[in-house]
Design a protein that fits this description.
Blueprint (H helix, E strand, L loop, with lengths): L9 H10 L9 E3 L6 E5 L4 E5 L10 H7 L4 E5 L19 H19 L7 E7 L1 H11 L4 E9 L12 H8 L1 H10 L1 H9 L7 H8 L9 H8 L8 H4 L15 E6 L7 H10 L4 E5 L6 H4 L1 H12 L4
Parallel strand pairs: 3-4, 3-5, 5-6, 6-7, 7-8
Antiparallel strand pairs: 1-2, 2-4
Helix pairs in contact: 2-13, 3-4, 5-6, 6-9
């Protein structure tokens, strides 16, 4: 599947709507020239960057993008290797996958500022799952660029006491044969789309979520991201969140936490750690939402984010 900026014939738009129901039209699709990274660009006003996790892509934000684009400039990239961005091949191997993703964010931000004309500072980051540590680490490396944070079922600190990663994620992470089988069958993505929501998704939307990773060659980033889940407080991923000169860090930023309370992985133990570390954050719990809180509680979460952007958290 390819994506190009600009308008598409009506027949192509109709076909895409059948393939990816609810996804913004191709006139909102963009590519970063240097890397080919795909992103969505909707609305006008202050820039809001939506960073997805694993095994998702920008499709997961579609409901929030439609609700928030009348109020802000909404930008939703597919992280390299995910969604409609160029898929990673073994030859693309880099010594540090975290640094590779952070470099991708560097290039995306430079493109949006220099080529598209967005402001360098004053950004809002909306973070979910793997987008949490990546977005937080990038914000700490570029103080002053991110003005506020929205946190949705993610982490940006070492796992606290009392939290234990589910056994199936530990199996994939720690046992290469298991990871190989999951990669072969796409089991992780398929299971996540069922277990990660409280209200089951329509079959057409599940298929749309899975479409970019339908072939084995296109799901390497999904398996690698599970394999990269930190094992302990000394893991390199957590050191990204302690850059030299970070100062007050994330605690200096206005923060909204929107949390799906039925998440089987990011349990309330992690939410309690967010509230302990960031006592000034505005916290909204969604009791009937799972890991994909933006799927289960799009209306309520969208309204909270809108009010947060307008200064009424």
């Amino acid at each position: 599947m390819t994506a190009r900026a600009g308008h598409a014939p009506a027949s192509r738009s109709a076909a895409l709507e059948r393939l990816m129901p609810g996804y913004p039209a191709p006139r909102h699709w963009r590519r970063v020239p240097v890397t080919g990274q795909h992103y969505l660009d909707l609305g006008s006003g202050q820039p809001v960057l939506f960073l997805h996790g694993n095994p998702s892509w920008s499709y997961v934000w579609r409901k929030l993008l439609h609700r928030l684009s009348p109020h802000a400039r909404c930008l939703a990239p597919d992280l390299p290797g995910f969604g409609l961005s160029r898929h990673l091949r073994p030859a693309d191997g880099v010594p540090d996958p975290y640094e590779a993703q952070l470099e991708g964010l560097d290039i995306l931000h430079r493109h949006l500022v220099r080529d598209v004309g967005l402001p360098e500072r004053g950004w809002t980051f909306v973070l979910h799952d793997w987008g949490g540590p990546l977005g937080a680490a990038w914000a700490l490396r570029h103080p002053g660029v991110v003005a506020r944070l929205v946190v949705c079922n993610t982490v940006a600190f070492p796992f606290p006491d009392g939290f234990r990663l589910p056994f199936y994620l530990r199996w994939i992470r720690d046992h290469r044969p298991v990871a190989g089988l999951v990669h072969l069958t796409n089991a992780f993505a398929r299971t996540a789309l069922r277990a990660g929501v409280h209200h089951p998704l329509p079959s057409a939307e599940r298929r749309a979520h899975l479409r970019p990773c339908a072939r084995r060659a296109e799901r390497r980033a999904i398996t690698d991201a599970v394999r990269a889940i930190p094992r302990g407080p000394a893991d390199p991923v957590w050191r990204l969140l302690e850059p030299p000169g970070a100062g007050a860090g994330l605690s200096a930023l206005p923060m909204l936490v929107g949390w799906g309370m039925r998440d089987p992985v990011f349990t309330p133990v992690l939410l309690e750690e967010w509230t302990r570390r960031f006592p000034r954050a505005a916290v909204h719990r969604f009791p009937d939402a799972g890991h994909f809180v933006m799927e289960d509680a799009a209306a309520g979460l969208g309204d909270r984010i809108r009010d947060f952007l307008q200064g009424a958290s």
